[in-house]
Write a structure and sequence with these properties.
alpha+beta, Immunoglobulin-like, disordered C terminus, three-stranded antiparallel sheet
C-alpha cells in the first residue's frame, strides 16, 4: 500500500512539474525564418536649401532551409506606425548574412525595422503575425 501511494504521489508531482513547461512551449510562436542581425539608420534631414533622404541599412540572415526569394521589411517610427516597406528580391541561402540599404524619408528618431513577410524558393510563405498594417506601397531595394 505504501508503494502505491508513493507511486501515485510521485506521478502527480512529475505531472505537475511538467505542466508549466508544456504550457510555455505551446504558447511560444515559431521563430521567424529571417533574423535581423543589425539595423543602422542614417537620419534624413531637411533645411531651407532642400531635403536629404536618410538610409536604412539592414543586415539579415535566412534561417530557413529553403532559399528566401522575396523579403518585405517594415520600417516603423517611434510610435510603432508604418513609415515605409522595403521589398528585397533575390536568392538568399540559409545561414548567409546579407546587408542591403534602403532610402529612408522619415525625419524622426528611434525607427525600427521588422520582417513583415518572407517567401521561399519551395513556395512557402511566412508572415509576421505580430504586425498588421494597411495596404501601403513597397519600395524595391537595391
Amino acid at each position: 500500500m505504501k508503494l502505491t501511494s508513493l507511486t501515485a504521489a510521485l506521478g502527480t508531482a512529475l505531472f505537475l512539474a511538467g505542466a508549466p513547461l508544456l504550457a510555455s512551449a505551446a504558447d511560444q510562436a515559431p521563430a521567424a525564418p529571417i533574423q535581423i542581425n543589425d539595423v543602422r539608420i542614417g537620419q534624413a534631414f531637411g533645411s531651407s536649401t532642400g531635403f536629404q533622404p536618410g538610409l536604412a541599412s539592414v543586415a539579415f540572415t535566412n534561417e530557413n532551409s529553403s532559399p528566401a526569394t522575396d523579403i518585405v521589411f517594415a520600417l516603423e517610427n517611434q510610435k510603432g506606425q508604418l513609415i515605409d516597406r522595403f521589398e528585397d528580391v533575390g536568392n538568399y541561402a540559409q545561414g548567409v548574412t546579407v546587408r542591403h540599404d534602403f532610402t529612408d524619408i522619415e525625419l524622426g528618431y528611434n525607427q525600427k525595422v521588422t520582417v513583415e513577410k518572407a517567401t521561399f524558393a519551395d513556395g512557402s510563405v511566412w508572415e509576421n503575425s505580430d504586425i498588421s498594417y494597411p495596404n501601403y506601397p513597397t519600395v524595391v531595394g537595391y
